[in-house]
Amino acid sequence: xMESSERAIAIVGVGALLPDAPSAAxxxxxxxxxxxxxxxxxxxRWSIADYYDPDPKVPDKTYSKIxxxxxxxxxxxxxxxxxxxxAASMDxxxxxxxxxAADALADYGYPDRPLDTERTGVILGTAMGGELHYITxxxxxxxxxxxxxxxxxxxxxxxxGAQQALxxxxxxxxxxxxxxxxxxxMPGELPNIVSGRVANILNLRGPNFITDAACASSFAAxxxxxxxxxxxxxxxxxxxxxxxxxxATTFVKFCKIGALSATGTRPFGAGADGFVMGxxxxxxxxxxxxxxxxxxxxxxxxxxxxxxxSDGKGKGITAPNPIGQQLAIxxxxxxxxxxxxxATLIEAHGTSTRVGDVVEVESLATAFxxxxxNSIGLGSAKSNVGHLKAGAGAAGLLKTTLALHxxxxxxxxxxxxxxxxxxxxxxxxxxxxxxxxxxxxNGTPRRAGVSAYGFGGTNFHLVLxxxxxxxxxxxxxxxxxxxxxxxxxxxxxTMASAAATTPERPxxxxxxxxxxxxxxxxxxxxxxxxxxxxxxxxxPPRTLPHTVDIxxxxxxxxxxx
Length: 561
Fold this sequence. Notes:
The structure is a single chain. A hairpin with a 2-residue loop joins strand 17 and strand 18. This protein is of the alpha/beta class and 561 residues long. The longest helix is centred in the N-terminal third of the chain and has 18 residues, at 160-177. The chain has helices at residues 24-32, 48-51, 84-88, 92-108, 132-140, 142-150, 153-156, 160-177, 185-189, 194-202, 217-230, 248-257, 289-295, 322-336, 356-367, 382-385, 392-406, 492-500, 520-535, 547-550; strands at residues 9-17, 39-40, 66-67, 120-125, 208-211, 236-243, 280-288, 301-310, 345-347, 376-379, 408-409, 429-431, 436-437, 447-454, 458-465, 478-480, 485-486, 489-490, 511-517, 554-560. The two termini are 27 Å apart. It is globular. The chain has 3 domains: 9-127 and 187-465, Peroxisomal Thiolase, Chain A, domain 1 (3-Layer(aba) Sandwich); 134-180; 478-560, no CATH class.
């Protein structure tokens, strides 16, 4: 049986496009800054006057007009050397996916850092597709509109010439507002080409495919990516999820289920009355932890385990089932070979629905029953950006990844006062209302669980851990050198470091680092520089200590890793 350390997967690059957040860094700033990114439907999306009615009983109308919207996005087709004609035929979901995937590669350091594109896959979660196909199909069904128009008594009273003039004017208006259908339309609109578009534009030759598990699609993609890496079928995978479906038809149909809130998103909070839809995309570049450490990659966090389940037979196809949720959680922690009680943060599915939040906390309380009271922070990114549907897991994973990277317990919004039907005092959980330092418990690495559940009874849970260099991949210690430049001078150690940072040269993660200086103050300055660089993800290169450091008046030897 494979050791859990061999299944450890490193997150080495991130990219995102979310409400009020054109980047992963902006999203994190919004999280810790408690930004609420829910607003009314923008006029350029759909007309509130046409589709909204506050009465849920009115047919073919939405009683909700709020959401988490991505605004101001413009696809940079020049960046990807694409013909503008092709770019114009791409649904924004495809454009978002290409953009965030490229951002994740850039965050990793590509092309300066090595990446075998022949063995890099693309697996993205997406579900309903985008909105462009709803728009362009108006051209195809135009004859049906004409038929309905001709069947009206008032239209029949018009002269044949007047009838034809009206039809031609109607079609001219459609021509003006609806994009033409071309040879690029079908590939530009199909959701199952999202991952292929990324692989094509970025020239990645590993497997590419999408996963559709409704609102758990992103985690279905991550699980598939992890499996490919564990089986050594690829060396890197771009994964995550994208959702760009906020059309009026989606609002109306969700409202007829009674699923949407007209007032706001408040996971685990008093007054939770439905979810608020959101949109966006998040991408993660994954590598095997052993490979990432050997290469000296910046590692945001480590995926220790991921697993899924199905609800089986339950109350209904859309009703949450605690048994299925618990199975996914238990399987993920078993795959990680870790005690769930060692978690100190849970990023919940947390949709802000009347039934869903209560059921989820009950499921979590059962799965984490071994943890002490008030020992695990609880939150949901949906309190900030709404429910991204197929992209929901990507938003939750990004939030938790950055929380581990920054060692901060992130706040969740609108959970105070709490839902009256949830007794947090009898559980291990406490909603995190303010950002705070994420301290270790008894020396245990910071760990988190992240959940994503979907319509149709599909459940996924992921175990995430902070990166502790060498903890899971023990290596022999070697001597290393620090790149220290003081007063504009370049030491031999500096030159050795510069030579050692070429992509082809492996960089150790365990070693003995020697520093030397002429005074305690100078030594402290060197140590501060090394510490700052290490915190930013730098690893000292392999080199013997320089004689200048060994013979210095003040010396310091660091046993790291």
